[in-house]
Amino acid sequence: MTEPTKGGLQAGGAAEEPAPSPLGGSAEPVHPQPPTPRDGTGKKERSNLTLRLITAGTLIPPLLWVIYQGGPWVLGTVILISMIGITEFYDLIEAKGAEPLRTFGMIATAALQVIAYLGSDYLANLLLSAVLLGLMVAQLGKARIAEALASISGTFFGVFYIGWLLSHAILLRNFESKVAGRFGEDAAAGIDPDAGGYYLLFTIVVVIGGDVGAYFAGRAYGKRKLAPKISPNKTVEGALGAVVAGMFFGLGLKALFDAYAPHLSSGFGYAFGAATCVVLSVVGILGDLVESLLKRDAMVKDSGGILPGTGGVLDRIDSNLLGIPVMYYLLLASTFLSRSLGG
């Protein structure tokens, strides 16, 4: 039995008859079209980026207004974000099979914000210690003790990770009064009462700017994985992009305030600002990796779904959870050194 060769010719050389058409006559040879390129991933990424931009455009104006207003507005906003964030965190804990003391943790988190607003970071630290002791006592009253270690650890870490770290947003916004309470009125004499608003905005802009830089630099140039076991999409090139973009946005904001509101931005110069931009950008990357580690351990993609294109509140604030405390203590250290050298 002979096989047909290319061109429709049999081995004997005779042309093969075309198959009859159902409509009569001979059917034309079928030439299939090449497969359509699979661009579903690209469309999904573009759609996700659009959602991110819409979410950012919706959240940024009220956030700027709250920072500008300060006072109870910042306190209320931080409490609201903390309540959503710690709820998402406890969802991650429950995904691991533990049973955190949700009510206790949420009350302790809100109390930390109020203490940070009315008192100081020192009192907040004391409260954090009291929370740990109270948590251990509360665990004794639970009927189920099989997960006691995981419950205590998870509940307390949530209070620390969300409540205590985010309370520094209140401390930073009220930086002038916190310096006066820690070092005396003389140390705070040269600090504008509203300078904390600029410091808080500076931190958020640098961290978010670094996040944007990491995203685009990683997509364009990313080759070497930064932490493949924790977050496979993050690259070394993206991290470098985060530092460059963080410095660009941070120093740009500094220049803008120097031009239009120098009484707020005069607390540090460009050299300190550039160094701070680098530190905050790196810390922002670490904060993102920490949350990625928690999500990977819980085997979930996002901490929640309240923010379209981003995921949960915890997905949005993860970098600033570390960035804001670092900025606060950098400024405290700078104030202390300036006061010591000046004295």
Q: What would your notes on this structure say?
A:
The chain is built from twelve helices and two strands; from the N terminus they run ααααααααββαααα. It is mostly helical and 343 residues long. It folds into two domains: 106 residues; 153 residues, no CATH class. It has a two-stranded antiparallel sheet. The chain is globular and about 60 Å long. The termini are far apart.
Summarize the structure.
Helices cover 70% and strands 2% of the residues. It is mainly α.
What descriptive keywords fit this protein?
70% helix, 2 domains, two-stranded antiparallel ribbon, 2% strand, disordered N terminus, single chain, mainly alpha, 343 residues, globular
Q: Which regions have little confidence, pLDDT < 50, spanning 5+ residues?
A: 1-17, 20-27, 30-39
Number of helical regions: 12
The percent of residues in helical segments reads over 70%
Number of strands: 2
Estimated structural class:
mainly alpha
Strand order of the largest sheet: 1-2
Question: Which series of helices and strands comes N to C?
Answer: HHHHHHHHEEHHHH
**Strand residue percentage:** under 5%
Averaged pLDDT: 84
The biggest sheet, with number of strands, parallel, antiparallel or mixed sense and barrel status, is:
2 strands, antiparallel
Structural domains: how many: 2
* Assembly context of the chains: single chain
Span between termini: 105 Å
Radius of gyration of CA atoms, rounded to a whole number: 28 Å
> What is the molecular shape?
globular
